[in-house]
Specification:
By secondary structure, the chain is of the alpha+beta class. Helices cover 23% and strands 17% of the residues. The termini are far apart. This is Peptidase C1A papain C-terminal domain-containing protein.
């Protein structure tokens, strides 16, 4: 050690100790969006947290997703203030009697679409999925029509009115499109092609599909397959009003802020614990309840297939506006326009 000063040795030791003491940034905090979205550090943090209330794990759906790809599928853009001008907001009387627990799948058990978990692929089309899924559920609930409607029609054809297709959009604009333009059946314009490839979403960089306005099935006419919503409205952000709307009219579309830890959700009542903000996401709210340990929750259906979460579903804490889940609730009622009815005198198109 001859020739090396004590000061230099102390400086070198401090550098080493500093490097050991400084925590390594992981995930999005590292700034490297090419890393995988599923991170063992986050899983361990959640599962070792004494008050998390939910369990994290390796969701197979995101096994090959990077952080950048995960961000891309979170397709709810911030709503411009002017977009909500003139949109009515529904409220309900506090005297409305509501059950402690509710599941739309049970109340309307004949409506198979309520319990269907879909797959948006690599397209940021959640804003469209939430609207189309809720409308088709309400066609069954209110008009006794079991139909599957086309998310692809909305994503491809709404254009700038709704936002930017696979690069995100606005839930309220999706409902306004359903009022003005309607949406065809999924059979006419499917989101999935015949060989099972996710469309759009075969590749992470798949662009918004072109609007062709032509049924894929021969002898089907595009305009004849359109189904409409009567209106587009918001629901007041009070939990009672949201519950009353779902109880009376069926599932609603909700948007909320997603953090890294949400990608790891497996079961329980979600609350944000750790990780960076990723973006906005829209899903279908189908019910509510209270967990065994006394946590009030919302019950929601996601569109990340059944390889994510609790068989495609998740619960999130209710009454605290967790991640903004109670702020942006939208819906509409199904229209009889263009629907086919069968009666004593045959079939009529209304």
């Amino acid at each position: 050690m001859r020739g090396v000063s004590h000061a230099a040795l102390r400086l070198a030791l401090l550098v080493v100790l500093s490097a050991v003491a400084t925590p390594q940034l992981v995930g999005a905090a590292s700034g490297d969006n090419s890393l995988g979205i599923i991170q063992n550090d986050i899983i361990e943090t959640i599962n070792n947290h004494p008050n998390a209330g939910w369990t994290a794990g390796q969701n197979s759906y995101f096994a090959n997703y990077t952080i950048a790809q995960f961000k891309h599928i979170l397709g709810v853009k911030p709503t411009p203030p002017g977009l909500l001008r003139g949109v009515p907001t529904k409220t309900y009387s506090r005297s409305t009697d509501l059950p402690k627990e509710f599941d739309a799948r049970s109340k309307w058990s004949g409506c198979s679409t309520i319990g269907t978990i879909l797959d948006q692929g690599h397209c940021g089309s959640c804003w469209a999925f939430g609207a189309v899924e809720c409308l088709q559920d309400r066609f069954c609930i209110h008009l006794n029509m079991n139909i599957s409607l086309s998310v692809n029609d909305l994503v491809a054809c709404c254009g700038f009115m709704c936002g930017d297709g696979c690069d995100g959009g606005y839930p309220i604009s999706a409902w306004q499109y359903l009022v003005e333009n309607g949406v065809v059946t999924d059979e006419c314009d499917p989101y999935f092609d015949q060989v099972g490839c996710k469309h759009p979403g075969c590749e992470p960089a798949y662009p918004t599909p072109a609007c062709e306005k032509k049924c894929k099935v021969q002898n089907q006419v595009w305009q004849e397959k359109k189904h409409f919503s009567i209106n587009a409205y918001r629901v007041n952000s009070d939990p009672h009003d949201i519950m009353a709307e779902v109880y009376k009219n069926g599932p609603v579309e909700v948007a909320f802020t997603v953090y890294e830890d949400f990608a790891h959700y497996k079961s329980g009542v979600y609350e944000h614990i750790t990780g960076e903000m990723m973006g906005g996401h829209a899903v279908k709210l189908i019910g509510w309840g209270t967990s065994a340990d006394g946590k009030d929750y919302w019950l929601l259906a996601n569109q990340w297939n059944r390889g994510w979460g609790d068989d495609g579903y998740f619960k999130i804490i209710r009454g605290k506006n967790e991640c903004g889940i109670e702020e942006d609730v939208v819906a509409g009622m199904p229209s009889t326009k263009n629907t086919v009815r069968t009666g004593a005198y045959g079939t009529a198109i209304l």
